[in-house]
Design brief:
single chain; about 260 residues; alpha+beta; Fructose-1,6-Bisphosphatase, Chain A, domain 1; D-Maltodextrin-Binding Protein, domain 2; 2 domains; seven-stranded mixed β-sheet; five-stranded mixed β-sheet; 8 helices; globular
Length: about 260
């Protein structure tokens, strides 16, 4: 592993530890909540604080790098040249507000469009899933095995609420009938982790932002799993995506069912 990756990995893990402690210490505090695009698309003062803190740390430590963050405290990114950081300060904000669990702090680092490092921290369970290109995926330092290549009929499918609610996705919902069951967690990062662990055979979701998928993409690559859009094209990290994270067998079946 290049020394700069090792050094940056240690730095990022230190930041995640420091920031997540503050989040946990304030989890029962009165939140300032604002609506963004819809009643279920919310942002809190904690989302903003986490992103501001991470942006400040990145700017100080890696001043030439660029940042794409959910809450807009980074840069306007129109290409993937150089080093680009993706930040989702609280992935699963609705869960954070209403459940006080099932949310994650997410970071990913890309160099010239290639995923180099990814971090998904399940805050309340204190589980840090991390990956460095070529080094596999680990949970709290314990390396994850490559999941069994299960077919749809052998496992559980996960999805997001839009697919379940909106009529235009009727044809997508039929995919669930081919699986053993359906699950919704409400956090793209935590669903990505479940695919990486082999707990579910696939995660399909619509209209995910770049920061929703950038960390999980490296996990899929490192574990021999599939990560594409619904049309089987590679993910576009500059735009929204309809995504499939899946085992190879499940992915092949889903692509046929969708198209």
């Amino acid at each position: 592993m290049p020394e700069n990756f090792t050094s940056r990995d240690k730095t990022i893990k230190k930041w995640i530890d420091e920031i997540s402690r503050v989040v946990l210490n304030n989890i029962d505090s009165q939140l300032e909540i604002e609506q963004k695009t819809a009643p279920n698309d919310l942002v809190t003062n904690m989302d903003k604080w986490v992103e501001k803190e991470l942006v400040k740390k990145i700017r100080t430590t890696f001043p030439s790098d660029r940042i794409l963050g959910e809450e807009g405290f980074g840069d306007a990114i129109e290409d993937m040249n150089g080093t680009v950081w993706f930040i989702d300060p609280i992935d699963g904000t609705l869960n954070f507000i209403l459940q006080n669990e099932n949310f994650a702090l997410m970071l990913a680092v890309y160099e010239d469009g290639i995923a180099i490092q990814s971090y998904i921290f399940d805050v309340t369970l204190n589980r840090l899933y991390s990956a460095i290109k070529g080094e596999g995926v680990s949970c709290n330092g314990q390396r994850l095995p490559e999941p069994y290549d299960a077919a749809l009929e052998e496992g559980i499918l996960a999805t997001n609420s839009s697919i379940m609610i909106e009529e235009k996705y009727d044809h997508i919902r039929k995919i669930a009938k081919e699986s053993l069951g359906l699950r919704l967690v409400g956090s793209a990062g935590l669903e990505s982790v479940e695919v990486a662990k082999g707990s579910i055979v696939a995660y399909i979701a619509t209209n995910l932002k770049p920061w929703d998928v950038a960390p999980g993409l490296l996990f899929m690559q490192e574990l021999g799993l599939k990560a594409t859009q619904f049309n089987n094209e590679p993910l576009d990290l500059l735009n929204n995506n309809n995504i499939i994270f899946a085992t190879n067998k499940a992915h092949e079946e889903i692509i046929k069912l969708i198209n």
